[in-house]
Sequence to fold (224 residues):
Amino acid sequence: MSIASDVIRGHTDAIILAQLMAEDSYGYKINRAVVEKTGGLFEFKEATLYTAFRRLEQSGYITSYWGDENTGARRRYYSITPYGVELYQRLVAEWEQSAAILQRLIYPPKQS
Amino acid sequence: MSIASDVIRGHTDAIILAQLMAEDSYGYKINRAVVEKTGGLFEFKEATLYTAFRRLEQSGYITSYWGDENTGARRRYYSITPYGVELYQRLVAEWEQSAAILQRLIYPPKQS
DNA sequence: CTAAGATACCTCATCTGTCAAGGTATATTG
DNA sequence: CAATATACCTTGACAGATGAGGTATCTTAG
Fold:
């Protein structure tokens, strides 16, 4: 993950929910998708990922169920709830607004 | 600060350093500048701000000195060090790269 | 057959940054 | 004289991220 880490920090939930907006998925697969999308620049630490799943499920934003693989390691699939869709939309809106704001704050002001 | 809070979280150092890149300044003034630049959407909690100052100073990124006001409350001015300039540049570069990455991660992928 | 690596999940303890809540002190303005 | 603005500070609690450890299955190379 080299760079990026600090900025992505705090957006764990939004990234996970974005994946679940497309389809039910499971931890390992979501993390593979993130690695692939970032060209290897970022990946979740496992502890971070599973902590987030528990947090989101306990708050009612996602639900989980065991996959019925008859081969390979078992998978716990997650599904986004209507409540989670709302959260996702709010997080995206926040991101958009806040990215614009940060863009203004992070560069030095002209001297007065 | 209503919205924004989560996204700005983690960029305290970069925002402070950006201000100090322009000129030496002090806590209260930096926070006023932030409020003004964001149209009132965001401001630092004082504890967050002063915690950050201490962290940055202990790490050698900024130095401080007391202003010589002969009126009004005393001010502790902060000055960015060469080491701090380096950090600032690194943080900005990270922000730019990471904002682009997040932009890709935060929207749902097309179903395959 | 066996070792290594990929797949897949989980927990615990610790660290770091944020922030609510409290405090001090001075100057200005109604 | 009270309220408000300026200006700084500390403490304790909390939440999210993470290092380090663990379990189990399947595939592939030697």
About this structure: Residues 82-105 of chain B form the longest helix (24 residues). The beta strands of chain B are 25-26, 62-66, 76-80. DSSP finds five helices and three strands in chain B. The mean pLDDT of chain B is 90.
